[in-house]
Every structure is written in structure tokens, then in C-alpha cells.
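= Protein in question =
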Amino acid sequence: MKTRIFILVSIYIFFLITSCQKQSVKVEPILKKVEILVEHHPDSALVLLEEIPNPQSLKKSLFYRYSLLQIQAKDKSYKDITTDTLIFDIQKYYDNRNEIEKAALASFYCGRVRQEQKKYEEAMKIYLNAEKYLMQSNNVNLKGLYQSSVAAIYYQQLLMQKAINHFKLAKTYFHQSENYKNEISVSNFIGNCLLIQEKADSALAYYYKALALADKHKLRYEQARTREGLGVAYREIEEWKRSEFFFKEAWIFSDDSLKKARLSSNIAFLFENRNNTDSTVYYLQRAITYMPSQKDNFLMANIYKTWSVIEEKDQNFQEALSKYKLYNKYLATILDENKNSAMLEIEGKYNFQLIETRNKQLIIGRQKILLFSLGLVLTLLVLIFLVLRRSAWKERKLEEAELKIYQMKEMARGFNEKENSFRNVLIRHFDILKKAALLEGYLKEEEKIRGKNLLKKFNEIVYGQKKLDWDLFYQTLNDLNNDCFDRLKNKFPQLDESEFRICCLIYVEFNNTEIAIILSYSV
């Protein structure tokens, strides 16, 4: 029975460990692929992550690794990360385990979540506190991301010089890590900052550096974006021809219709600044033509706002009113979207918290079951161990008892033989002493006188003296009765010597006359 329980428990533990290992074996290769893809192909990374069923059931280390990669892929895919607050627990987890690289990455995304939540002060504190990880980290690209995120906050708050300083650091790190896409992006931002500071020449220098890098590495999206940036920069400093040139060059590298719609609107605004009404209307119409079915409401609102102003200048009031109504329509849609977005964000946060709570409950439930199972297994193992140990102890004690019984029997046999022989000697010795003690009492007076010398000699032989030696007589009595008289003396100290001696002689069955003779009393 014990053996069967032990086997069942062992099988249960084996299957429990095996199921966890199988899950890890399946998930590990997917996570490794995601880690390779996430930097340059975040959309593909997200698709792979979605293939993992019920990620909350993964063990903690895998689940946190999965969640960190997920927020990384979402952020790089320009998806909402404002509700991904689990990242704060992930950061603490890696910090406690002293996994510097992952703790640094998690710290960065803690800052990104706060930044996307528009909690800029909190985000800045997180970024500044993360410097301790950056100093120990070997991830140069991550250092660039930190610096560019800090710079973006300063840029948004119009602290241009501080933004430039951090963008320059980011540019250095991105160059070292050969992340040319991000290097081009921060170069354009530096150009924007310098342009706002009215340092057009310096701004253009950075724009051209970005352009050279984009052309060198043939990054089409960056080639289009940088040329568009140059077009806006030249438009701001009223160099119309150069502005038009770069807008048209950007058109060549643009692959999607929305990008072409935006370029068309930029060219339209360029002609509006030059008071070229016909070209402005032409490019506004062209922008609407290129607009995809999923319209960009901000761009549409700007198009119709500009168009209504042009019609009003030309005193086409009916057309101006019509375009203005369309502007209002898209403006109202933007406001509604913002309201809906706010409501969806609240709902999303609530749903996320609900899901997170349920997931936590599931995880806690699974952990409880696992702990209970392990507790049960351990309890069973302890019980089995105790039962086996007690059984072994009983067997050992039984063997010891049997051995002791055997030894005691042997000892008893030997002791009985010795005791019998010793007892026989004592009894014979006592017989002699008893007879010697009574001899003189039973002799007649004339017999005593005649055998006076003989009695003395007899007593000397028996007692070593001329008359009865009580002490020797008592010692023989006491030995014969297993020290009974010593115990009697200790228990009843109130007995005087005569009373004590009478008790001893009564115990060994001396009669009244014999007691009187031994103690030299009258009968």
C-alpha cells in the first residue's frame, strides 16, 4: 500500500514538471524569433506573439518576457500603450533579479507609458532614474531611445536647446548601433528645433545630413519624409522654388496614397503662401483625390479650411460657405472622435483592469492549486517517510527487545545459578549461626559449666569472639533477605535498637523463646 502511494505521487510530480517543460519548450522559440524581429519588423513580432495561446498561464518568467516584448512591439507599431501598466511590475521583477539589460528596457517602457499618458513629469523622473541601468547596460540603441524620448518631452514643452542636447546624444548612440532609421529621425528633429530658433542655416545642415544618410542606405520612407521636411523648412523661410522641388522629390519616394495626399496639401499650402489660387485649388483637389477611403479627418479639415479662405478671397461666398461647412463637418468628427476616444480609453482601461484582475485571479488560482498540489505531495511524502521510518524503528526496537530478552534470559539463568549457590551458602551459614546462638540457651547449667571452655572455643571459631556477634549475625540475615532490614531501618528510624532487632528476628521466623535467648532477655 505504501509503495503504491509513493508511485502515484511520483507519477503526479513527473507529469506536473513535464507539462511545464512542454509549455516552455513551445513558447521559447517564438519569443526568440520575436526578439529578432521586434526592432525592425514590430508588426510581424505582434503577429507571432498573438500565436501564443493564453499567455497568462505561462510561468512568471516567460509571461513577463512575453509582456515586455509585446509592449515593445506595440510602441514601435504606433499602437496605444497607455493601459500597459503591467510594465511597472515587470520592471520591479527584473530589478529584483538584477537582470540589468531587461530592467533597463522595462524602465524605458515605464517612461514611455507615462509619456503616452501625457504625464510628462512622471515620465521624466522615470527616465532620469533609469540612468543607473544605462550606465551598466551594453545596449547602445536603448541609450539612444532614452535620450530621444527625453528630448521629445523637452521638444513638446518648447525647451528647444535642452531638446537639441538630448537629440544630439541620441544621434551619437544611434550611429554607434547602426540604427540609421532612428539617426535620420533625430537629425530631422534637431533641424526642426533649430528652425524654430530661427537658425535656418544650421537647421538645413541637419536636414541634409539626414537626407544623405537616407539616400545612402536607400530607406524609402525616410527618403520621402526627409525631403518633405526640407520642403516645409524652405517654405518657412520663403524659398518657394526649393520648397516645391523637395515636395515633388518626396512624391517620387512616397509609396502610399495617404502620403501623396499630404504632399499634395503641402504643395497647395505652398502655392497659397505665393497667392497662386489656381495651383492651390488644383493641389487641394488632388489631395482629396489621393485621400484613401479611411480619411484623415485632420488633413481633410485643413484642406477645406484653406479652400474656404481662398473662395472667400475670390468673393465666391457660396463656395466659401460650402467648403466651410465641410470644414466644420470634419472638425465635428474630430471632436466626436476625441470624445469617443476618451470614452473608449476609459472603457479600455476598465476592461483592461477587469481582464488583468481576472488574469491575476486565474494566476492566483493556478498558483493555489499548484501550491496545494505540492503541499499535498510533500505531505504524502512526509507521511510515507514517517510511516517507513516508524516501521523501521519498530523493527529495530523489536530486534533490540528480542536481543535484550535473550541476554536477560542468559543473565537470569546465570544469575539464578549464582543466586541459588550464594543463597544456599548463606542459608547454611545462617543455620550455623542460628544453632550457635541457640546452643548456649538450650544447655543445662551443669552442662554449661562442664563445657565452658568448649563453648568459648566454639564462639571464637564461629564469631571470632567469645560470645554472639550481633553485627555478623545481622549482616547474614540482611544478605539472605536482599537488604530488607537496611530498608526497614531507613523507613522506621523511630524504632530503637531492641525493637529493630526483635522485628528482624520475627521476620526470619524465630519464636519467642529463641528471640529471648538471642537478645539475652527473659522469655
Q: What stands out?
A: Residues 317-442 form the longest helix (126 residues). DSSP finds 23 helices and no strands in the chain.
